[in-house]
Specification:
54% helix, two-stranded antiparallel ribbon, 126 residues, Recoverin, domain 1
Length: 126
C-alpha cells in the first residue's frame, strides 16, 4: 500500500475537514498493514483475531464475524483497506474503530491514576 492509495482520501470532499488527515491516514495504513497477514490487501478473520488479541481485547469467532460484517456492510468476509479507512473516518461507531481509538489514546497519553488521590496523613505533609 503506497501513499498514492491514501491520495484518494486526501482528495475526497467528504474528508476535507478532517483534522490531521495525512497523519491519520499514515497511521491507518501502518495499523492495517500490520494485520494484513496474507498480504492480499485484506484483513481476514485470523488477522482480525490477532489484531484484537494484540490490542488486549480478544473476541470469539462470532464476535469477529460480526465486526467484519459491521465494517463491510456484509459485502465481504474480509476487511479491505477502503472499508477500513471508511470505518475509521466515518461517523458510525464500529466496535473495531472504538477498540483502535481507545488503544491509540492509551498509548499516547501518560496514564493518570483513576479515582480520588491517596489519603495523606499529617506525617507525610511537608
Amino acid at each position: 500500500m503506497s501513499s498514492l492509495f491514501n491520495m484518494e482520501y486526501m482528495e475526497d470532499q467528504k474528508y476535507r475537514d478532517e483534522d490531521d488527515l495525512p497523519e491519520k491516514l499514515e497511521g491507518f495504513k501502518n495499523k492495517y498493514a500490520e494485520f494484513d497477514l496474507n498480504d492480499q490487501g485484506e484483513i481476514d478473520l485470523m488477522g482480525l483475531k490477532r489484531m484484537m488479541e494484540k490490542l488486549g481485547a480478544p473476541k470469539t469467532h462470532l464476535e469477529l464475524k460480526k465486526m467484519i460484517l459491521e465494517v463491510t456492510g456484509g459485502s465481504s468476509n474480509t476487511i479491505n483497506y477502503r472499508d477500513f479507512v471508511k470505518m475509521m473516518l466515518g461517523k458510525r461507531s464500529a466496535v473495531l474503530k472504538l477498540v483502535l481509538i481507545f488503544e491509540d489514546k492509551a498509548n499516547s497519553t501518560p496514564c493518570k491514576p483513576d479515582g480520588p488521590p491517596p489519603k495523606r496523613d499529617i506525617a507525610s505533609l511537608p
